[in-house]
Specification:
Blueprint lengths: L6 H28 L11 H14 L3 H9 L1 H25 L4 H12 L6 H7 L4 H13 L1 H13 L7 H25 L1 H7 L3 H19 L1 H32 L4 H12 L3 H11 L6 H50 L1
Amino acid sequence: MEPAPSAGSADRAARLAVTVFPVLVLVAGAWGLASPGTFASWGTNVPYLLGVVMFCMGLTMTLTDFKGVAQRPWAVGLGLVAHYVIMPGLGWVIAHALGLSPQLAAGVILVGCAPSGTASNVVTYLARGDVALSVSVATVSTVLAPLITPPLTLLLAGEYLPVDAGSMMTDILKTVLLPVIAGLVVRLVLGRFVDRLLPVLPWLSALTIAVIVAVVVAGSADAIKSAAALVMVAVVLHNGLGLALGYGAGKLGRLGKPASRAMAFEVGMQNSGLAASLATAHFSPLAALPAAVFSVWHNVSGALVAAWMSYRARAAERGAEASAGAEASAGAEASADAR
């Protein structure tokens, strides 16, 4: 999945998407907060909206994404373990450290137990990371979410609120796995037609996630004023530590810098739309608040960290080129002296 010859236009499009998406989600959240009555009756539609997002994700997949897993099992396995160990563990630690209420604690932990974020691949590309690895880890973490997210949530959040892991597993199958598989099948059958739609799919997903955030925020509008600051602290810590520890996991696994950049985003960015949907259905609108805030913040932080990583990578490349040029020049001078 290396950038095509039109990498410049693709890079501009990706930067635009990553820039506009958090703004769009922020506006939607503000709308939900200012006019909760507008979205009061939309709560039951959140799972269907998430299904639209996951169907779009399936449409962007190809069989090559799954072949990458077989070609690099160690790297993908490390990414999967890091994702489902680091983020759930951080969620539990942060909930305890900040003394969050049961609803908010369960919401933070549920965010940590979700699969990789839908924007992680684009951010990895902007960071000059290993996009193929990013896609493979995101794909596997999403496919395995029905088997991993419910028991992890039960284990870590069960002390705060009752967790029906079986019902949660069924919901993830219906709202995540089935739409993803349906999208993949449509892509295989109608490949040429879907290829024409690919530029539109990220925007459709962004608009749908924005609506989900508006609905979630509207449902907990009364509690946001008193809890927003604490939730923001929890989200920033959760995301920031996830990005750092994800990068560290890649370094410890000796995957190289591009792969470590991919690991940072596959660990630190979550499918917060799924977390919001599950929290609303199984806990309460208040428990979905951390997921709504995470939806905005992890895209902002992801874009900033990607820009910094890209700058460092470009600087390192320029330094290597300058060093190679100096060595070549010194070699030429030595050869001339010898003659």
